[in-house]
Amino acid sequence: MRALVLAGLAGCFAPTYAPGSPCTTQAECPGDLVCDPAQPAGPTCVRPDDVGTPDGTVVDSAPTDAASDGPDVRSDHDGDGVPDELDNCPHIGNPEQTNEDDDGVGDVCDPGAGKHEIAAFFGFDGTDLPPELVPDDPQAWSVADGFARATITTNALTSLTYDPLSNANVSVTTTFTIDAIAPPTMGQSRNVGIAHQHSPAANTANACVLNYDFNTRASTLWILSTMGAQTINEAEFSDIEAGTTYSIRTTDATSQNTALLECTAEQAPTQVSISGAKIVPESAGNRVSLRTRGTTTRFDYMFVVLGPPIPL
Ligand SMILES: [Ca+2]
Ligand SMILES: [Ca+2]
Ligand SMILES: [Ca+2]
Predict the structure, then answer these.
(1) Which residues lie near ion ligand 3 (Cβ < 5 Å)?
(2) Whose atoms come closest to the Cα of 40: which ligand?
(3) Which segments within 70-116 are labelled E, that is strand?
(4) Which of 42, 187, 236, 252 has the greatest number of beta carbons closer than 10 A?
(5) Where are the domains of the chain?
(6) Which ligand has an atom closest to residue 123 CA?
(7) For 236-276, how does the pLDDT look when each residue is reduced to its tens digit (9 = 90+)?
(8) Domain 122-306: CATH class, spelled out
(9) Distance (Å) of CA 238 to CA 205, 210, 234, 263, 280
């Protein structure tokens, strides 16, 4: 349910004396509204039940609505006290919200120099996929317990795709846990990660994945490319050493577009965190996906940032 464009949020705080309005003194807040300096967006007229809730745990569901509708849980995915929709880095605890370059994306998850914008944060609350995320196989995807789960017990590849904007640079980060790996089929490897789907018509993609090889019984982090081919071309992968950023430049034989993908990964005992940035925009679109081949995997979130390229 959580996909908030922060740029749009700013429009909620029009200078009218209503809940949600900015204020400098109590006199500016009519009725029983309170000028609360502790609100995440700065001093704001709020109803009494919303005072002092920068912890983001229990507040009125909409501080700008006409009447109090009682306390509701506001999601704070990283537990840093700043609600997801106001957090400049909603998946990493950063209560100080530092943002040195003042570009809207907090220092701890800013992908690089230049002005960035949080396009979306999907934290997978509730039981439905966010409408902005489109599964290629709806039967394979479910939402529960704060995760989007892909259940694949065959060799199939499935993806959950977000298409934020055409011709924009985009960075994607996710964290996931693999619960089960399907038995081997024709020696195919299994992998989980994120993909920039370069040409949907040709089913080609660049991907940052954790790959499990049935031959070596080893799981490694890969940058994977299917550019110009209908199937995974393992000759084009690069091993990713955890904590290091790698890039791959490919040209789609179908569209003749060149794409550049950077991948960084961290591998904890049970969880893998992967970030990837498509840093050459092209006309084929801007689709980015969570994806898996042949695993049952829980994805913790999908975080999407738009903005300038990461310097190489
Ligand atoms: Ca938070
Ligand atoms: Ca945060
Ligand atoms: Ca920043």
Answers:
(1) 99, 101, 103, 105, 110
(2) 1
(3) 71-73
(4) 252
(5) 122-306
(6) 1
(7) 444 555 556 555 555 544 544 555 566 676 766 566 777 76
(8) mainly beta
(9) 15, 11, 9, 10, 19
